[in-house]
Specification:
71% helix; mainly alpha; 217 residues
């Protein structure tokens, strides 16, 4: 966040849509990292906690849900400290003109994280190569999710293309609710919710199908 904000400041842009560039970038990372945990920290839960599966009361999916709770709790505190730190150091803070939209976007990001974590946890445990591929594919997500720039700075055809990425909608929704950032033309928070719920449905179906193989692995 500091590095990217520094690049913007060096080239002479201190604000994006009237919002200090550091706060703008930081708010994007707050939401993006929630989803990013579903691609790594939570998706590796089963494989990283195999010893716990020796206890009959612990099921494979319990490890994913436990990491989800842990990750969201720690990230919430880190986000609060980030906001307080920016307020203290450079004197900028969110105004929350639409707190309900900000909350809905956070919950959408959490749903997305869980929606990708469960199927990836199942596939990644059964096939170790899956997580390697996910790691490579997820590298450009910071750019493709609109974290480090404004969607309004892009041509309409690029905005329409990036709108297929559900992370874009939760990032932009949180910025609109917390900072008053204008929404881009193709914004649809329900798209992110639908994407997350479909992921959850597939994830639970795959888990139910392969739950005994997961214990054997």
């Amino acid at each position: 966040m500091v590095m990217i904000s520094g690049i913007w400041l060096v080239i002479g842009r201190t604000e994006i849509h009237g919002i200090h560039v550091t706060l703008y970038i930081g708010s994007g990372f707050i939401v993006f990292i929630i989803v990013r945990q579903g691609l790594g920290f939570m998706a590796n839960a089963i494989d990283a906690n195999k010893a716990l599966l020796n206890y009959p009361q612990v099921k494979p999916i319990d490890t994913v849900l436990a990491r989800f709770v842990e990750g969201m709790w720690l990230h919430a505190w880190a986000s609060v400290l980030l906001i307080l730190g920016l307020w203290w150091i450079i004197g900028v803070k969110p105004t929350f003109p639409d707190p309900l939209l900000a909350i809905e976007s956070i919950f959408g990001a959490m749903l997305l994280a869980l929606g990708v974590a469960i199927p990836l946890a199942v596939w990644g445990t059964l096939n170790s190569g899956v997580m390697n591929v996910v790691g490579i594919i997820s590298q450009p997500l910071t750019i493709l999710s609109g974290v480090i720039f404004s969607m309004h700075d892009l041509p309409p055809n690029v905005q329409e293309l990036l709108a297929y990425n559900p992370i874009v909608h939760v990032v932009e929704g949180f910025r609109a609710g917390a900072l008053g950032n204008p929404l881009f033309e193709y914004f649809d928070l329900s798209y992110a919710y639908r994407f997350g719920m479909i992921g959850l449905g597939f994830g639970y179906a795959f888990y139910f199908r392969y739950r005994f193989r997961l214990l054997q692995k």
